[in-house]
Amino acid sequence: MDVLRGSCLCGAVRFEADLPTLFLCHCHCHWCRVAHGAAFVTWTGVKAEKLRQLGDEPFWYRSSARSERGGCGTCGCRLFFRSTSSPGEIHIAAASVTDGLDRKPSAHIFIDEKVSWLEIADGLPQIPGTDPRLGRYAGDPTRA
C-alpha cells in the first residue's frame, strides 16, 4: 500500500495522501484534548502537498495565531491540524484513517499535560513539552 486513506464520521470529507507518513504519536497537550474531547489525540503527519481532498472541503478553524484545525462541516468531526510551527506538514487524526497507516506510534508527547486519570503502560517514550525535540511547539502558549 502506498496511499493513506480516510474520512470523517459521515464520509463527506474524504482524503488520501501519498506515503510515507512523517510520524505517528499520541499528543496529550491541552489544546488537542479539548479540541477532540478526548484524553489524547493520535496524530500522523504527511507533507502538505501529498494530501488530496476527495470529498467536501474541510472547514478550517484558526485555533491560535499560528495554528488551524480542520474538520467536517456536516458531522463536526475534527480531522486535521496545520501550523506555522510545522510548515509544509498536515497532521491527520489517525483515528480517521481507514487504511494505509505505515507505522506504529512512537511516543506520547506533551505528557506533562496528560489528564490525571489516564494511566499509560505501553512502554512508549513519554516526552514532556519542555523536551528539545518538541522545541518548535514547546513554550508557545499559542500552539493550539
Describe, in short, the structure shown.
With 144 residues, this protein is mainly β. It has one domain (3-134): glutathione-dependent formaldehyde- activating enzyme (gfa) (Alpha-Beta Complex), CATH 3.90.1590. Helices cover 5% and strands 36% of the residues.
Q: What layout of secondary structure does this protein have?
A:
Layout: E1 3-7, E2 14-18, E3 23-27, H1 30-36, E4 41-47, E5 51-53, E6 59-62, E7 67-71, E8 78-83, E9 89-93, E10 97-99, E11 108-109, E12 126-127
Parallel strand pairs: 3-11, 11-12
Antiparallel strand pairs: 1-2, 1-10, 2-5, 3-4, 4-9, 6-7, 7-8, 8-9
Report on the architecture of this protein:
- This protein is mainly beta.
- The chain has one domain: glutathione-dependent formaldehyde- activating enzyme (gfa) (Alpha-Beta Complex).
- Helices cover 5% and strands 36% of the residues.
- The chain contains one helix and twelve strands; from the N terminus they run E-E-E-H-E-E-E-E-E-E-E-E-E.
- It has one helix at residues 30-36; strands at 3-7, 14-18, 23-27, 41-47, 51-53, 59-62, 67-71, 78-83, 89-93, 97-99, 108-109, 126-127.
- The strands form two sheets. Strands 6-7-8-9-4-3-11-12 form an eight-stranded mixed beta sheet. Strands 5-2-1-10 form a four-stranded antiparallel beta sheet, with no helix packed on it.
- Strand 1 and strand 2 (14-18) form a beta hairpin.
- The protein starts with a strand and ends in a 17-residue tail after the last strand.
- The model has no long low-confidence stretch (mean pLDDT 92).
